[in-house]
Amino acid sequence: MVEAIGAWPPGGGGSTxxxxxxxxxxxxxxxxxxxxxxxxxxxxxxxxxxVYAQYGGILSDSASVLVxxxxxxxxxxxxxxxxxxxxxxxxxxxxxxLHPADxxxxxxxxxxxxxxxxxxxxxxxxxxxxxxxxxxQVHDSALTAMLTLAQQYTLSISVVRSGxxxxxxxxxxxxxxxxxxxxxxxxxxxxxxxxxxTPHDLVDGFMRAAAAAGSYNVGGPRQLTGGSTxxxxxxxxxxxxxxxxxxxx
Length: 249
Fold this sequence. Notes:
Mean pLDDT: 96
Strand content: 25-35%
Largest sheet: 7 strands, mixed
Low-confidence stretches: none
Helix content: 10-25%
Shape: globular
Order of helices and strands: HHEEEEHEHHEEEHEEE
Structural class: alpha+beta
Radius of gyration: 18 Å
């Protein structure tokens, strides 16, 4: 659905054409195009590639999937991250809402850590995450940890601040992401966390390194023991496809 909205041939721009593309998929409400926001820029044509789709939350009857996109138009390269909400249904789950990222405008001045993250060739930021850092709304605690981890690993970030649920999915507890105090990593040293061929030692070692870099809340595909604070490590169904690195200040 995200690809149908965000990619079109010459002359296929606009919401009416996007609704027709979504309707052709079957089982998806074309009215959701009204929630597409930055997925549907004004352009004569567009190409879109989904970089990664990770869980923002998964329950028995509902889910949040964070769809990270690169997009190209004649005006240049861009992209966004869309928090896609789904509800269980038969024969397949149904998309119920779209929440595109809203990073905000670039800051007039950035911290040293923010500038270093943006310049690093060992930290890959998708468009929405790059705009988050550029907005100046990501805490230096998270940025400094990225830089520390990048001394030992190459990191592919999926989500930083925008495009993530405001609350921890299924709760009323605020997430650290919209506060600029967390980031998710979907690939480490070029190997996807979700890939069963990725060595457990690589992911587990990265999680422990994230804790050593100051994270109070490190989530991933396996429950690790130890930690310098109680419950510093966690695992659940949502975090089998990425590593969450959160900070409390």
